[in-house]
Specification:
The complex is a heterodimer. By secondary structure, chain A is mainly alpha-helical. Chain A has helices at residues 12-30, 34-52, 72-100, 106-129, 138-145, 148-162, 166-180, 197-217; strands at residues 56-61, 66-71. The longest helix of chain A is centred in the middle third of the chain and has 29 residues, at 72-100. Chain B has a three-stranded antiparallel β-sheet with strand order 1-3-2. The chains are: A mainly alpha, B alpha+beta. The A-B interface holds A 1, 3-6, 8, 10, 12-13, 15-16, 18-19, 22-23, 25-27, 30, 98, 100-105, 225 and B 6, 11-12, 14-17, 19-20, 23-24, 26-35, 38-42, 46, 49-50, 67, 72, 89, 92-93, 95-96, 99.
Chain lengths: 225, 110
């Protein structure tokens, strides 16, 4: 390396490709995708006993005959759990960035995550009193997304943008499909035997994604000099 | 030849190391001295010189502090630095496309 300015004959192609390579290296060093995925997998699995052992309500609309089941505890568990999760994720990223000496763009993700979580909880509360007219139609899909699981998915989209991470974008789309997929068996009942299947499925997508990213990002996680 | 893209290149930025510093600072928002030194494969003295040039030009700010008992130097890109980096990248792309057009024209003649 020299301190002189580049010679006019310096190859601009080389300069540009060096710049791109450096930018890619920094982005890889900034990523810690595995951590939020594992945190959300734990929250999703932990929501199973919360739902199982909390009180349930069965609300039905007479015409057309539509019923919805909800648990009080979920409306308390998810907003608190999500806000705490984003605080933990932001703290983890900041600590890691200090150790590595390179800043990250975690703030927009954490802020967007908290806003989405609070907003969708509000929407979910409203939906309890206003169930969809066509549960399997487009409005039914919107209702499926306006849940804590959907909030996690939307916030992961923000993380994929902040980390410029295509692999995470792909995983998030798979996860959102898992959230939208209606896993129901038989008639609507307050606490059906299959109540934990969606959470197991969605949690597994997050867990496997988290493990995959942890393995992929492991060689890059060197201790700070 | 005033219209040639090479004339639009800023000597402060059009230098491999300084372009590297600005690129890393742009991606990271805030970057530590040791991260720059390791990733650009420079000595501390050499890096300090380049940082001094960029700071004098108002393209970066340098902030010294402590993380625990350890002294740290943080580098942040200024708005002028962001604009200079964007301009340099645009000029480089323009230069490359001009070279490619000239090459194509020469090959067409032969």
């Amino acid at each position: 390396m020299t301190t002189e300015a580049a010679h006019p004959g310096d190859d601009p192609d080389r300069l540009l490709s060096d710049t791109r390579e450096l930018a890619q290296r920094v982005r890889k060093d900034q990523r810690a995708t595995w951590f939020p995925l594992l945190v959300f997998a734990v929250l999703t699995f932990a929501s199973i006993p919360v739902r199982r052992y909390s009180g349930h309500h069965l609300d039905c609309v007479a015409v057309p005959r539509i019923c919805s089941v909800y648990s009080d505890a979920e409306f308390v568990y998810w907003p608190i759990a999500l806000v705490l999760a984003y605080v933990a994720i932001a703290a983890f990223y900041i600590r890691r960035s200090r150790a590595r000496g390179v800043g990250t763009r975690v703030r927009p993700y954490a802020i967007a995550g908290i806003i989405i979580a609070v907003a969708l909880t509000g929407v979910a509360l409203w939906e309890v009193r206003n169930p969809p007219v066509h549960p399997m139609g487009l409005d039914g899909l919107a209702y499926q997304l306006a849940r804590p699981e959907g909030a996690i998915g939307f916030a992961l989209l923000v993380l994929a943008w902040a980390e410029r991470n295509r692999a995470l974008l792909l995983l998030t789309l798979v996860y959102l499909v898992a959230v939208l997929m209606p896993i129901t068996f038989g008639p609507v009942q307050p606490n059906p035997p299959w109540y934990f299947y969606p959470a197991i499925f969605q949690g597994s997508v997050l867990l496997l994604g988290g493990i995959g990213f942890a393995l992929a990002q492991r060689p890059l996680r060197s201790p700070a000099p | 030849m005033t219209g040639h893209p090479a004339n639009g290149l800023d000597d402060t930025v059009h230098q491999r190391v300084r372009l590297g510093i600005l690129t890393i600072a742009h991606e990271a928002r805030r970057v530590e001295f040791s991260y720059l030194r390791n990733n650009l494969d420079l000595t501390a003295g050499n890096l300090s010189q380049h940082l001094g040039v960029l700071e004098s030009a108002g393209l970066i700010t340098i902030e010294k502090g402590y993380a625990g008992k350890r002294a740290r130097t943080w580098v942040t890109l200024t708005k002028a630095g962001q604009a200079a980096l964007a301009e340099e990248i645009a000029q480089l792309k323009l230069l490359i496309s001009q070279i490619e057009r000239t090459d194509t024209a020469l090959h067409g003649q032969t």
